[in-house]
Every structure is written in structure tokens, then in C-alpha cells.
Amino acid sequence: MDILTLIKTRRSIRKFKKKSIQKETIENILEAARWAPSGLNNQPWRFIVLDGGLKDKIAEYTKYSYIIKSADKIILVFLDKTSSYHYEKDLLAIGACIQNMLLYIHAIGLGACWLGEILNRRDEIKKFLGLEENLELQAVLAIGKPAIFPKKATRKKLEELIINDYAKL
Ligand SMILES: Cc1cc2nc3c(=O)[nH]c(=O)nc-3n(C[C@H](O)[C@H](O)[C@H](O)COP(=O)(O)O)c2cc1C
Fold first, then answer.
1. Would the pLDDT of 110 be above 60?
2. 106 lines ligand 1 (CB under 6 A)
3. Does the CB atom of residue 114 touch ligand 1 within 6 A?
4. Contacts of 150 (CB under 8 A, 6+ apart)
5. Which of 28, 59, 86, 140 has a CA 20 to 30 Å removed from the CA of 112?
6. Element counts in the chain: helices (H) and strands (E)
7. Is it the case that residue 90 has pLDDT exceeding 80?
8. What's the CATH code of the domain at 105?
9. Whose CA is nearest to atom 22 of ligand 1?
10. pTM, entire model
11. Domain that holds residue 64
């Protein structure tokens, strides 16, 4: 699959088959994350991988618990504030790191959903996991073998997105 097709066919997966993901696969997903760009190459991202009972405990902190419960594993993505040099740029870098993972996951026939609503309770999650103060939760990725793959997806037209008149040239 060419890269543009890969990007365009990736969908958020919210229902997964009961199939476990190998440790090696998770390592490759994190490898995709590790090679994302970051300002000054500061690589401010940190990860926690959970499955089983602990994963399901994290599900209690979001109204999208059904997605986490259905997933085989979750990856919690944190900003390490001790590595931060510019908060906004660090968040952008973490977004790039997450997209790297989503695309790799899709490329190998697995699926994922980027969960953001859960951040409403990020402090409680940090307390529950007993994490250091410098780690700020930025996203949770629910990962597994897709059970339902949504075909339909919509995006704004390019003309709505380009601010200058480049599209008319
Ligand atoms: C920052 C961010 C937060 C998101 N949070 C949630 C979420 O909490 N729950 C959910 O079901 N999907 C969430 N999504 C997935 C979006 O709903 C999804 O990407 C969007 O509807 C486009 O669909 P697609 O990913 O299938 O192309 C989030 C996506 C992003 C980028």
C-alpha cells in the first residue's frame, strides 16, 4: 500500500476481536513512536503499556470504557515535563508520535483508537498508577485486531482548508 492510501484508509477502531498482540508487535509500535520528530529532538514522550485487569481499571476513567475493554492492550502516552523545552511544541511532537503509531498499527493490519476524553480524569489516573509529578497524560491508544472496520469517513474539502487561492491556480 502506498503511503497516501495508508493514511487515507486508517480509521479509528472501537471494537476489537479477542486476539492478543505479541510483545514484539508492541515494541515495533513504540519504535514507530520513538522515531517521530520533536523540537530540538527532545523526545518528550513516555509510554505505559497495559493489558488485563489493569487496562480495565483505566477504562473506568472514561465514558468510552467499552473501547478500552474491547481492546487487547492500551498505550498511555505522557509528556515528561522534565524533558520539555516548549509546552506547545512538545504537544505537537507527541501528536506526531501518536500518528506514527496509528499508521504503523494500521499498516500491520491491527487497529487503534486515540482516546482524548479520558484526559478529563488524567490526575486521577496518575494517582491510581502512582506516577511521578512530571508525567502528564496526553492520550490513551486502545489497540487490537479490528472486529468492525468503519468504511465511511468524511473530511472537509481541500478548498475549505487552503486559506490562500492556491487551489484556484
Ligand atoms: C485528540 C483526539 C482525541 C480523540 N478522542 C476520542 C475519544 O475520546 N473517543 C473516541 O471514540 N474517539 C476519539 N478520537 C477519534 C476521533 O473521533 C476520530 O479520529 C475522528 O472522528 C475521525 O475518524 P477516523 O479516525 O476514523 O478518521 C480522538 C481523536 C483525536 C485526534
1. yes
2. no
3. yes
4. 11, 12, 13
5. 86
6. 7, 5
7. yes
8. 3.40.109.10
9. 12
10. 0.97
11. 3-168
